[in-house]
Each structure stands twice: as structure tokens, then as C-alpha cells.
Amino acid sequence: MARWRAWHTLAAEDHTLDFALAFAPPALRAPRQDDSVAYAYAEFASERRLAATLEITSPNACRAWLNGRLLLDQPRSHESGAPVLSEAEGIVKQGRNTLLIRLDKAPGPFWFRSEWTGPQGQKIPLSWWR
Fold first, then answer.
1. For residue range 77-118, what is the model confidence (pLDDT) as tens digits?
2. Distance between CA atoms of 99 and 41, rounded to whole angstroms?
3. What secondary structure does DSSP assign to 40-77, as a single string?
4. Is the backbone peptide bond immediately before 26 cis, with ω within 30 degrees of 0?
């Protein structure tokens, strides 16, 4: 059964989204859930147009779309369960932007952490829409 649920990440937690917490545990811990898919959607604002790098750290296969365009495609989950950093460059437009992230569940943890960085690797603070 597909459904959306409101959930907010915190900057203090490096915008980590743990689907095991967002969905009712112990539901995600059941082996029959190991081949499921989850999406995370966010809207954010930028004061100006800028080139930025989206960094996603996760042990799961993931895809990310920025403003409707595929930006990142990490097609494989990591069997060891160890998180891997995936990066993709894109253009964040001035004003409202959308970010859609898809994670594929495999046996083991089901989470991701996202961050935007600038050309020199500095974190880019964004205003998140709620």
C-alpha cells in the first residue's frame, strides 16, 4: 500500500532520514519488507541561483531528482550495509526548488543523509519549506 507521511529532518542531525523511524517500527524490520521502495520529497528556497553538489550518504540504492530532473542515480544497495557517499552536481534555482529522493530497501538499514555543498565544499544553508 502506497501513502505519504509528513516527516521532517533536522539540520542538527545532518538531515538524516531513517525510514525505520519514519515508518512504524517494527514494520520495516520484517523480512517481507526488504524489497520495498520509499520516497522522500522536500521543497526548499535559495536566495540566488547557484551551482551546487548534492551529497547523499546511504547504504541503499538511491535516485534523486532536482526540480523534476534526474540528478543522481546510485543503482545498487551495498551488501555490507556500509554507507556510501554519492555526489551529483546541479543548478539550484533562485526561489522555490523541489527534491525527490527514492531509496530501494535491501536487507539491513534503510536511511539516507543529504547535504548541499558549494564549489569549495562549503555547506549551503537552505530554507526548507514546510
1. 666 678 888 999 999 999 999 999 999 887 788 889 988 998
2. 6
3. EEEEEEESS-EEEEEEEEESSEEEEEETTEEEEEE---
4. yes
